[in-house]
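User: Hi! I'm working on a homework problem where we have to compare a predicted structure to a textbook description. Could you give me the structure for the chain below?
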Amino acid sequence: MNENFLYNIDSVNEKTDPYSALRFWEFRNFTVSRLLITIAAQMQAVIVGWQVYEITKDPLSLGLIGLAEAVPSICVLLFAGHITDTSDRKKIVLFSVFFMTVCSLILLIISSDFFPIISSNKVTAIYIAVFLSGIGRGFSGPSFFAFVSQLVPKSILPNAITWNTTTWQTGAVTGPAIGGLIYGFSGAVNSYIVIIFLWLIAISLIITIKNKPVPDFIGYHSLKETLTAGLKFVFEKKVILGAISLDLFAVLFGGAVALLPIFAGEILFVGPQGLGALRAAPSIGAVIMAVYMTRYPLTKNAGKNLLISVFGFGTCIIMFGLSKSFLLSLFILVLSGAFDSVSVVIRATIIQLMTPDNLKGRVSAVNSIFIGSSNEIGAFESGVAAKILGTVPSVLFGGIMTLLIVTLVSLMSPVLRKLKL
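Assistant: Happy to help. Predicted structure tokens:
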């Protein structure tokens, strides 16, 4: 890695006010909108999962939800990254949120049983709505990631990344809990009404942010080269590639979250309200850790801490699979979220600081292909494994595979292991 880059990172990460990013009003508005968007998305994930499993009683059907969202997201990501780097990023953010709002409206219509032909094919209709939402999510990843860097000075970008992660995790805590409670006491229709209301407030907050200049675009000889520039950059930067690959496989094999409806209903016997708590638990740990990192960053020994955190995450997955106690399972999931938060912040900091502004959309698209969509593909893998091996053995298998992958990456990537920011 270039020595000059190391010196630049040292100067960027000088000890600063832990609230420095929040002192910019546009970043505050963006942060609140991101919180509402996350709450809405997490509520929807809980409700859709419970609806589908309640109808099918099939673990594979839960995995298919993830696959239905991942496929369109992956298909549009490279194009979305290109559009993000060549267009007004605020407009792309608004488009993605509006598109996902429409998908929630479709789910509301499906759940209302107003149309008999839809009611008789409700699971298929839900899969179609989830598929469409994957398109919106494909555009949201690159545009949100790139837009953040235009809202604060580069000198406090690491602080903004940490707060961005904290915001997402806070929404991931409250979203499942709210979704589980509203669905458990008021049903799916009222739940989707609340979700749509949150989307609309988020859109109104984003509108208040001023339009930002489009970054100078680096031309390439062909559209193919333009679209794949992010891939080329990531594969040339071994540190970025190592960090992304590590999280990719950890998320892919550690997708126990997709099976939480089964744990809530048949192993821990806590129903939809308990499912909301289980879905929220990892993010409780993540929020606590993210807030801690705003004051005491763990990026100094970034590579070592990244490997430790992913190893800890895999260990928690194994412990969760073995637990028969609801309270113990909650504690283990909280711990897993704390480990996951460390890896998310370190990876995002590495990518933001090492990527030129006019490539951030496309590099974020690659990151989303590796990490974001692997959540859904990991959910599909968990569903298939649960179908073949059984629920608990499939979770144990995922945790063991995560530990093996961390060990291999540690041995094969000394540059990542020794990385210091």
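For your comparison, note the following. The chain has 18 helices and no strands. The chain has one domain: 3-211+224-417. Good luck with the assignment!
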